[in-house]
Structures are given as C-alpha cells and as structure tokens.
From TrEMBL:
One of its GO terms (biological process) is respiratory electron transport chain. It is a multi-pass membrane protein. GO terms for cellular component: plasma membrane. This is Cytochrome B. Residues 11-181 form the Cytochrome b561 bacterial/Ni-hydrogenase domain. The chain crosses the membrane at residues 21-43, 49-69, 98-120, 147-166, 204-221. It comes from the Bacteria. Keywords: Cell membrane, Membrane, Transmembrane, Transmembrane helix. SUPFAM superfamilies: Transmembrane di-heme cytochromes (SSF81342). Its main location: membrane. Pfam families: Ni_hydr_CYTB. One of its GO terms (molecular function) is heme binding.
Amino acid sequence: MEKNTAIKIRVWDLPTRLFHWALVACVLGSFVTVKVGGLWMAWHVRFGLIILGLIVFRIIWGFCGPRYARFTQFVHGPRYVLAYLRGIRPHYAGHNPLGALSVLALLASFGFQAFSGLFANDDVMTTGPLAYLSDSLSDTMTGLHDINQWIMVALVCLHVGALIWYRRVRGLRLVGPMLSGDAPIAAHALAEHPAANDSWRYRLGALLLCAVIAALIWWLQGLAPAADFSY
C-alpha cells in the first residue's frame, strides 16, 4: 500500500450523527416557529426543550462516547490553533483545531439559548417552564435570550461558510462524513488515528442515555402549571 493512499474509516458514530442532524432540524424548527409566532410558540418551546436535551446528551457523550466524539480527542490549546493557522496541518480524522472551536462555540450558544428559554417569557401567552420562579430573573433571561439568538445566527453562518470554503478551496467534503460516518485518511496515519468504535454496545448506551435525558426533560417541562403545551 502506498504511503499517500487514502482509505475510509469510521469517524462519526451513529449517535453523534443523529445528534448532529436532530440539532439542525430542531434549531431550524425553533427559529421558524418563533418568527411565525402565535400558536406556533408552543412548538418553539418544545423545540427548545429538545435542544436542551440534545446539548446535555452531547456533553455527556463527549466524555463517554467513541474516540472522535470525545472532547479530549479534538479540544486542544491555543498552540494547536495557531499552528493550524500557520499551515502546520497534520492529519485530523475528526475535528481540526478550528472545527473544535466551532463545535464548542455552537454548543455553548445553543446550550445557553435552550437554558435561558426555560426562564423566558414573551409578555403575551408563552413562558418557559421555570419563568414562574422569579419575574426579574425571567425578564433578564428573556433579554439575554433575544440577544443570543443573533450570536447563534452569526455562528451558524460562519459554520456553513467554513463548510463551503473547505469544499471549494481545499476540496474537503465535511458534510458527507457526517451522513455516512466514514471519512478518508492517509494510510500511513492509521496507527495514530484508528477507526472509531461504532458498535451496538455504544449505540445501546446512547439509547439508554437518551431515555434518561428525555425523562428529565419531560419532568422539567411539567414543573410549571402555567406552561401550557396543549395548543
């Protein structure tokens, strides 16, 4: 086998891929429903709760999931980012240093948006499940919730722009691997970057974790009698 031969390996496990596309769908659904308003705000709250559950899942999965899903595998210090920007680019089977920053920023922004939504209100008929705890806290979180939506939009635009740039300028297809789970890597780099474990043991563990988180989210949304999800 030639040194520069590229072969495909499993990089993104099924739970990570399902998380990614579920988050995309829920963020789009949340954005559309809040802009439409009216009775659709009930779905905005639902999407927000699902996003909260997804973010909690991804954080936990970042510590116990397969190799390339773990934060310890792709989160590095500023030295790695600066080296990458200077053109020192060793093989990255998963996220590169800039991609890692994007992941962390998106998780933080989406996570805060979902968390602040628990306390937010629209001064009409829609409130988060925990808005009843404190009027002042609710008003503060509502303001931050409104501000953060534009941070989210900016981060998503940067993320999509980066995907297009990598495809057109560097010829790297980053969307395909998040669909199939497989990505190409140079044969000589396999020893350092082995395939991720995408076994049914991990998948079953992810399913059980999702069940626990779903139960917690269901309990959370039922804490406030004023939060009506029956529209």
